[in-house]
Amino acid sequence: MASSVDPDSPRFLRQRVLAGFGADGQRALAGATVLVIGAGGVGSAVIPALAAAGVGTIAIIDDDTVEASNLSRQTIHGVADIGRPKVDSAADAVARLSPDTVVVRHSVRFAEKNSFELLLDANLLIDCSDNIATRYIANDAAEIRGIPMVWGSASRYNGQVGVAWDEKGVDYRDLFPEQADDDGSLSCELVGVLPTVCVVIGAMMANEAIKLITGIGAPLIGRVVSFDALSGTTREISYARNPDGPRPGSLEERTAIREPDPDLAVTPTKLAQLLAGPTTAGIHETPPLLLDVREASEASFVSLPGSVLIPLGQLPDRLAELDSLLPSRNASIVVYCHHGVRSARALELLENAGFTRVRHLTGGIDAWRVQVDPEMAAY
Known about the structure:
This protein folds into two domains: about 230 residues, NAD(P)-binding Rossmann-like Domain (Rossmann fold); about 120 residues, Rhodanese-like domain (Oxidized Rhodanese, domain 1, 3-Layer(aba) Sandwich). The chain contains 15 helices and 13 strands. It is of the alpha/beta class.
């Protein structure tokens, strides 16, 4: 459903007259799709601010329901909403502020298995979750999609705000390379949070989102702002990417090509030769079956011609389908995914199932785009 937010509406007059903002900035907001993870305390400040500013489409992810203990800080919900899904009451609040804003409701938990599909249409990701594991998943998903992520947290009397954008040189793993164990010891339920901290942090996050969408100002890339409610002060922390190699657990580290075994891996250039026919030595090799183990949403965006799609999670249950496409389990197969992580897992699975000539594409379809087909769409 397309947004019908009118950037020329009198509602936005005070924004359009801002120097450097103007009609172009308002049109950018109206055309934007923002995905917000979490409709809790921080999300309760972010979501209405985006709607009021004129963002055209807001997708909200939250699998929780409203409880009475939420209401002091999660002001997007009311007493009448207790027991309702938070995505529903948040959508109602947006409708009251901006009826023309499209709200997409995802009453699910943001997780690795659905992160890419949920981000497919988004220009910007905003992480308002209170879960450290979710933040790392969100960071990596935004990196794969090539979009910025605004993140924030609020606990006790303090909060933090930052922007992660791999394409600009830094992301969340550059600030915190190692994911700490999340034992819940700092959850709001146990240590509490001053409601106004959520409001301040949420407003700052919405501010960063507006800057990123419209191009005004200097986003918090490589910088974190920390807010102390007890002293009423803020301080800034700067950080940068370590130039000495991949960060622990990063997409770069997980997809690094480390002298692949030629019996198990094939480079994009070599695969292009195999698909074309004879090898340089004049020996004819039957082109391999291309097996795409990404999700359907990824394949619909871009894929290698002639490939068979069986997502990695479905592969164990669809081996018979693969058998029907091959003369035997000794036939040549090349598995690929986005960056080479899932395909390596698929290779091991197929070998254990008795397929004897399986290789995977090093660097995935993204490496194919760089080395073989620069005109291919990137994601």
